[in-house]
Amino acid sequence: MQFAGVLPPDAPDPMDEIRARVRTMAFPVMGLTPQRTVEDHGSFGVSDGHDSDGLSNQSVSISYTLWRNPDDRDDPANLAELDERTRAALDEEPPWPRPGWLVQGVQRMRYPQLWEVVRTTWNRDRSEYTSLSRQLVDHANYILMNRFGEELRLPPGPLTDRAWEVTESAVDPTAELEIDGRSVSASEIDTDPLVYAIGAHLSPDVVVTVVVSREDLPYLRIALTTRARES
Question: Region Disordered: start and end of each range (predicted)?
C-alpha cells in the first residue's frame, strides 16, 4: 500500500519490467566493453515507434556510472559536480524505510553518469531518416539537449533556435569502431566541443551509436560488446 507518494520497502523495481523487455528484443543489444572505470547497473531506456503496419522502430539505450578513480571509490574525484541544494537533498534520510533499489539509485546520483551513452536501434524500413549518419546526429543532439542545456544556454520550453545542433555535415564516415573484439567500419562526429559520437551498422536494419561527453573520454575505452541476454 502506498500513501502520499511514499513507496513501501517491498515496492518492485520499475526497471525490472524494462529489463524483461530488453531480454525479448529481436536484435542484439550493445553495451560498452567491461572496463574498471564503468559500472553497469542494468539501467536501460526503451523506446519504440508504430505506424499502420505495426512496429516500425525500436531503441535500447544503456546508462552507466563512471568511476574516475576505480581503485578508491571514496576519492572525491569520483563525485559528480552537484549544487548544494541537490547534495543536501541526497544526504537527507526520510523517516520511513525505502526499497533497496531506490536507495541504490539515490546513491548513484552522487557520481557522474554516462547517461544513455550507448543506443542500439532497429528500423524496419530504410530511409534518409534511418541512415547511420542521421541516427548518429539524432543521438548526439539528444544528449546535447538533455545534458548540456546550461552550457548551450538553451531556454526552457520549445526550442526555436537550433544553431547549437550537430548536423550531418559533421559526420566522418571513415572511422573504425571495435565491436565484439573486431574492428568495423564506422562513422564519427569529432568536431563538437562538448561530445564525441561514433556509430556503426550491426546489420542492414540495426545501428549502434555511442555519445560521450568530452570530459569523460579520458576515462573510457570506446569499444562495444553484445550484452548477454540474461543481463
Answer: 36-56
